[in-house]
Design a protein that fits this description.
Blueprint (H helix, E strand, L loop, with lengths): L16 E2 L4 H14 L1 E5 L6 H12 L23 E3 L16 E4 L12 E8 L3 E2 L2 E4 L1 H11 L1 H4 L8 E4 L8 E4 L2 E3 L5 E3 L7 E3 L6 H14 L6 E4 L5 E6 L4 E4 L2 E2 L7 E7 L5
The structure holds fe (ii) ion (FE2).
Fe (ii) ion binds next to loops.
């Protein structure tokens, strides 16, 4: 897989593939992941959510779910689980999982080096009353476009000191500094492009203006329908995406208190094989 060049305006992208773990469906799902960086599938309604995700991961060859290093710490363990329940709870103090607010563009694995968490799976147990769409941003394709048009601006995004992300969990002091984009040894362009509260940009010496142009370009691209799509997951639909190739975010939502939005999230170090 190289940079995903698909135009995200194509309606095929948000159409869920009916998935029953068959060989042909699995090939289709992998193809969509390769073509678009993500795929949506409608899972069987007689399989319990955790089992559905476990079987899907096994079929795709994703290995065991990975617990992000932010949640491997003694002081954050309460938030960490291989199967993370994403839902709003009045009592929650998690800045992202526990609220109905929108989430800025980011990649999963805040403290991991670029390209570590390669695949994310989001299984929808119950959608929100309204809102809550997951936004996918083909940040690597946008970066390539920037590099073609204005290589001087693109340069700082590859700098190993350019992007600091830090935990916004209360009383948790943890961060990671690295490039926003990088080329792997096999040539694949990977991303940890993010915006919002967890992010601090640090321009290399003398490159502030270049970095500003780069960020203005990426922020505009994030609103451009060629690069960005918002998906509403229905119950029993699953979204699989290449966390090392695309960035993602979430729109704010409104809950029915009796039946709140509920997603299950798992992370993997592997890509489908
Ligand atoms: Fe996320």
């Amino acid at each position: 897989m190289q940079v995903v060049r698909a135009d995200y305006r194509s309606p095929e992208l948000s159409t869920a593939l009916t998935y029953r773990y068959g060989r042909q469906e699995t090939e289709q799902l992998k193809q969509r992941l390769d073509d678009h960086g993500f795929a949506v599938a409608a899972m069987p309604d007689d399989v319990e959510p955790h089992t559905a995700v476990e079987r899907l991961a096994a079929t795709l060859g994703l290995g065991q779910p990975y617990i992000a290093s932010l949640y491997q710490r003694e002081d954050t363990k309460e938030h960490g689980a291989a199967y993370t329940d994403v839902r709003s709870q009045a009592s929650s103090d998690h800045p992202a999982f526990g609220t109905t607010a929108g989430q800025s563009m980011h990649v999963d694995g805040l403290l991991e080096p670029i390209g570590t968490v390669r695949t994310t799976v989001l299984y929808c147990v119950r959608p929100a009353l309204s809102g809550g769409r997951t936004v996918l941003f083909n940040s690597t394709a946008a970066f390539e476009e920037l590099r073609r048009r204005d290589p001087q601006a693109a340069g700082p995004l590859l700098d190993p000191g350019v992007l600091r992300r830090r935990s916004t969990l209360p009383n948790v002091d943890a961060d990671h500094v690295g490039p926003a984009f990088a080329y792997r040894e096999d040539g694949l362009l990977i991303t940890r492009y993010a915006e919002g509260d967890t992010v601090e940009w640090r321009a290399p010496d003398g490159r502030s203006a270049d970095l500003e142009r780069a960020l203005a370009f990426l922020r505009a691209a994030g609103e451009d329908k060629r690069y960005s799509v918002a998906l509403r997951l229905e119950a029993r639909q699953v979204l699989v995406f290449r966390n090392d190739v695309v960035s993602h975010g979430r729109e704010a939502y409104r809950d029915d208190p009796a039946a709140p939005r509920h997603l299950i999230r798992t992370l993997y170090l592997e890509t489908p094989r």
